[in-house]
Fold these 2 entries.
Entry 1:
Amino acid sequence: MAPPDVDGRDIPDGRIDVHTHAIAPQLAAPAPGRWPTVERTAPDRARIMLGGSVYREVDDRCWSAQRRLADMDADGVAVQLVSPIPVTLSHDKPAAPAAALCTQQNDFLADLCGQAPDRLRALGAVPLQDVVAAVAELRRCVLDLGFAGVEIGTVVGTTELGHPVLDPFFDAAADLGAFVLVHPVDQTLDPRAVGLGLGFGLGMPSETAIAGAGLVSRPPRRPGVTVCLAHGGGALPQILPRLDRGASLDRPGEPLPTERARDLWCDSLTYDADSLALSVRRFGPDHVMCGTDYPFVVRETPAGAVLDDVDPGLAAAIGRENALTALARVSSAPRR
């Protein structure tokens, strides 16, 4: 399946939402153990199960292209990038069944997006705990299924995203010009934040900040991959000056984390124009894209509402133009 043209000519007018989620209404466990599964409870309802307990109630917005397109039209969204629900990424599980779960999810995403290829683009799942298998599934996603890229978590078991063991994966993503959405998984958050009941408000942005800090504090990887931090980059924009100060003392003469952050991208899901302005300042006005967390209760409604409070030119860049630039990377990448 070849991806559609993304130079803007064949895409309807409207915003491009790079941060949305979907899940198959029948997701089976790939092996015994605490794997995410889905149980259908009604034609338009299901529950995600984790370890025999209900993790989340969901509805058909998670698997119905027709329902999704109706909501997009109502919100003025031209295109969605559709990625797995983060709890299903399973980077901390045994590699072989995790790879099987990725295959299930990617086949579902291919079918979902194939129903409206001019409006829906997929970001697949990869078993990042096995780098060789992750590269193979990344290549299948982009080259065979026509995906824009993949979604990954902020940490792989106990391995940080900046660790050199993951370099082959990011090299392959660069070769493909792939879009890589980095999204925290609520199962790996700081227990203190969770214990305070602040997993969403504090745990997720903190987790993203740790992953992002690791990326901007290690030697640069090959250019070409679009590494996009969810939720406006989490707390990373706020702490970059402190990282700079530490780096200037520990590694004098090397590029500072604030400079390195301009190699990253983020979405606009900050819920606040002032916070978005800081993300724009840190990552650059050409490296911020619209993201909403559709279809969940925490989503921004309407899509891109925060952009109503920013300069119209910047709003146009974040709402559409920057995403077209990012997607053109994978569109023009060499194909086998």
Entry 2:
Amino acid sequence: MSSSVIDILQLEYQRFSVKEKEIADYVMRNKSSINNINIRDLAANTNASMSTITRFCKKVGCDTFVDFKIRLNREVQHPRNDTDIFMKTQNIYNNIVNATAEMLDTSRIEQVVQYIKEARRIYVYGLGSSGLSGLEFKHRLTRMDIVIDAVTDSHMMIMSASLLGQDDLVIGLSNSGRTTEVSNALNAAKNRGAKIVGITNFDHTPLSEISDICIFTPEIGRSGDVNFINSQLAIIYILDVISLLLLEDRDLLKARQQTLQALYSAE
């Protein structure tokens, strides 16, 4: 797992105290200019004591505030003059994709791929936009002759979970990791012996705690002004990687080619 300051701020956010969350929020909103202020300024701007700032820095793996600033400055992509909306959108997408690639834990991804290959059947649970990502993943894996369904209704999640067994796999999608309906259904599936994979932004959440394997993605807010930017971009990136790894299997690749040929022939 990456040890970057920005990643730690995101993943450990749920463990911070109320004051530490305020400091983290301020840092993420102003990360491009933190290098220009001293510890007294940050304390004043967040209504915290300098000792609280120092403890906060140590909590994210930095010895001092100066060390924190240096590491953060190395990671921050300093803002460009994006007056052109086309260039601004491109830069936001590039930042999200790059951050996702940097957070990627290849060993966990490979284990998820193995889970998928071994599963009798697979369900993907997600609400709202996450549900749409689940449907997209279902379509991809169905073309590989993998038994999979995407469930986007909370009642159907609970019903399907109640029928699962040890040979089944459930993938839960939630940016916040706190979508109650998804977590409840995953708990029900876990109690039936199914394997659980979570894809989310935050560690120490109901979703991450119930998962056998959890894949973490960057929070879209890390890229600044993200009005109308697809909140599922990082999750789609992960699903793309999983799909491509599955297609390294000759049988799955052959099945995909057959289904695509059938579609082309029907046109």
